[in-house]
Automatic annotation (TrEMBL):
<feature type="active site">
    <location>
        <position position="402"/>
    </location>
</feature>
<keyword id="KW-0119">Carbohydrate metabolism</keyword>
<dbReference type="Pfam" id="PF00759">
    <property type="entry name" value="Glyco_hydro_9"/>
</dbReference>
<keyword id="KW-0326">Glycosidase</keyword>
<dbReference type="GO" id="GO:0008810">
    <property type="term" value="F:cellulase activity"/>
</dbReference>
<keyword id="KW-0136">Cellulose degradation</keyword>
<dbReference type="InterPro" id="IPR018221">
    <property type="entry name" value="Glyco_hydro_9_His_AS"/>
</dbReference>
<dbReference type="InterPro" id="IPR008928">
    <property type="entry name" value="6-hairpin_glycosidase_sf"/>
</dbReference>
<keyword id="KW-0624">Polysaccharide degradation</keyword>
<feature type="signal peptide">
    <location>
        <begin position="1"/>
        <end position="25"/>
    </location>
</feature>
<feature type="domain" description="Glycoside hydrolase family 9">
    <location>
        <begin position="29"/>
        <end position="476"/>
    </location>
</feature>
<protein>
    <recommendedName>
        <fullName>Endoglucanase</fullName>
        <ecNumber>3.2.1.4</ecNumber>
    </recommendedName>
</protein>
<keyword id="KW-0378">Hydrolase</keyword>
<dbReference type="InterPro" id="IPR012341">
    <property type="entry name" value="6hp_glycosidase-like_sf"/>
</dbReference>
<dbReference type="InterPro" id="IPR001701">
    <property type="entry name" value="Glyco_hydro_9"/>
</dbReference>
<keyword id="KW-0732">Signal</keyword>
<comment type="similarity">
    <text>Belongs to the glycosyl hydrolase 9 (cellulase E) family.</text>
</comment>
Length: 490
């Protein structure tokens, strides 16, 4: 225990020399929470509502689906481009719904519960359109190669809005199952506020799960941008887990037990790899008395142990400044998702008054949450560069996010169409701040040495994504509640 605490203190201690200036006091987690949800409004496709708060955006993709006589307007652009990818969009909604469910009281206390629900529904309304025909799911809108060769505002885009779908002849179990998980989790969110809508989401989730399970196969159509490397078994178990939580039907618990992969040890959680999320979700149910899920506890704990400094089985390295570092390219996605799972697991340990055993080293619930907090604090500015990696938070943050809509003058200021080449020449390569502030976006972040270059051409460092922010919402809600209780400012 002493060694574990020493290791944590070595990371947390605010006695570093050099350019790391220590920030005293707590961050304004409520402000960060509000902005993290606001970013998702900047990613909206379709006809924007009157309640739209990101005013520099306009309507876009209104005719999506027209090529096949279907209505696919709506949904979210995944990142800094103008393509709608089904797999990361569904993961965004699943993790956002999870955070809204388990930190609903905290979101309500912060005044953000309705904004979170609105963000979820913007995704689920789209999924209902995309899955209107049984055994069929539209999984992508937009030609990714043409889109990436063009630098246009979404309101101007004239690249092909090519349509991609899965069906029984061209299966895609990962995407169908992840969409089922998103709809199941969201059905619980709306259970009491909109029962009819909740029922519709649950029915569609069950239908999509059956489709994914009956017609098994991996869909490669979203490659090279969203290739599923882990296969579809994790998504099927993930969807079954959410459907069990939503229905308590023995059909889904039996499915989980019959198809489980308890040996699936992983040290990351992301849009492609769901095992860690499954393990934490089912361990929660186990701690609530669902004994059939006892086998998942050990791997959930092993996941957390793989992250913690001082753990003898730690396998994920950190930057010199203490940020978890998994790989190049939007590394912050692994940070926010890990922080969310650690926050949830610390809740489970606290509720049961238990400690976490990593080999012969014990960690208290506060140790686990403390490391999750350290990750979020790093992103908000407690890092060697003293920069907030959330755009619009604090006084020093990235000014050039790799984002088409934010980097080109707003259509409300300049209604004239700005075409591909002009976008590249006059906006993409322009070394100056974006004309539109992409408030709340967490960018890809620093490299493994804590180095960061604020140039929009550096997409691995500057591109934000919806699935970086979606797990962050729950963690920030918890941190807000923790600090406001401490300071008695709730």
């Amino acid at each position: 225990m002493a060694k574990a605490m020493e290791a944590l203190l070595a990371v947390v201690l605010l006695l570093f020399c050099g350019e790391w200036q220590v920030l005293r006091g707590e961050f304004d987690y409520r402000d960060a929470l509000s902005k993290s949800i606001l970013f998702l409004e900047a990613q909206r496709s379709g006809k924007l509502p009157q309640s739209q708060r990101v005013k520099w955006r306009g309507d876009s993709g209104l005719t999506d689906g027209k090529l096949q006589n279907v209505d696919l307007a709506g949904g979210y652009y995944d990142a800094g481009d103008n393509v709608k990818y089904g797999l990361p969009m569904a993961f965004t909604i699943t993790t956002l719904a999870w955070g809204t469910l388990d930190y609903g009281k905290e979101l309500k206390a912060a005044g953000e519960i309705q904004n979170a629900r609105d963000a979820i529904r913007w995704g689920t309304d789209y999924f209902l359109k995309a899955s209107a025909t049984p055994n069929e799911l539209w999984v992508q809108v937009g030609d990714p190669q043409a889109d990436h060769n063009c630098w246009e505002r979404p309101e101007d885009m004239d690249t092909p809005r090519s349509l991609y779908k899965i069906d029984k002849d061209t299966p895609g179990s990962e995407i169908a199952a992840e969409t089922a998980a998103a709809l199941a989790a969201s059905s619980i969110v709306f259970r009491f506020t909109n029962p009819r809508y909740s029922h519709l989401l649950l029915q569609r989730s069950q239908s999509l799960f059956s489709f994914a399970d009956r017609y098994k196969g991996t869909y490669g159509g979203e490659c090279p941008f969203y290739c599923s490397v882990s296969g579809y078994n994790d998504e099927l178990l993930w969807a079954a887990s959410w459907l069990y939580r939503a229905t308590k039907s023995s059909y889904y618990s039996n499915y989980i037990i019959q198809h489980d992969d308890v040996k699936a040890y992983v040290n990351e959680f992301n849009w492609d790899l769901k095992y860690a999320g499954i393990q934490v979700l089912l361990t929660d149910l186990y701690f609530q008395g669902e004994a059939q899920f006892s086998a998942y506890r050990s791997n959930a704990e092993r996941f957390v142990c793989s992250l913690l400094p001082g753990s003898p089985i730690r396998s994920v390295k950190t930057t010199p400044g203490g940020l978890l570092y998994v790989r190049d390219g939007a590394n912050t996605q692994y940070v926010t998702s890990a922080a969310f799972l650690m926050a949830r697991y610390s809740d489970l340990l606290s509720a049961k008054k238990r400690t976490l055993s990593c080999g012969n080293t014990l960690f208290k619930p506060n140790d686990v949450m403390g490391f999750a907090k350290l990750q979020i604090d790093y992103l908000l500015g407690r890092n060697p560069l003293g920069i907030s990696y959330m755009v619009g938070y604090g006084s020093k943050y990235p000014r050039q996010p790799h984002h088409r809509g934010a980097s080109v003058v707003s259509i409300h200021q300049q209604p004239r169409k700005i075409k591909c080449i002009e976008g590249f020449m006059n906006w993409f390569h322009k070394d100056s701040s974006n004309p539109n502030t992409l408030i709340g976006a967490i960018v890809g972040g620093p490299d493994k040495y804590d180095r960061f270059v604020d140039l929009r051409t550096k997409s691995s460092m500057l591109e934000p994504t919806t699935y970086i922010n979606s797990p962050l919402v729950g963690v920030l809600a918890k941190l807000y509640r923790m600090t406001c209780k401490t300071n008695r400012q709730c």
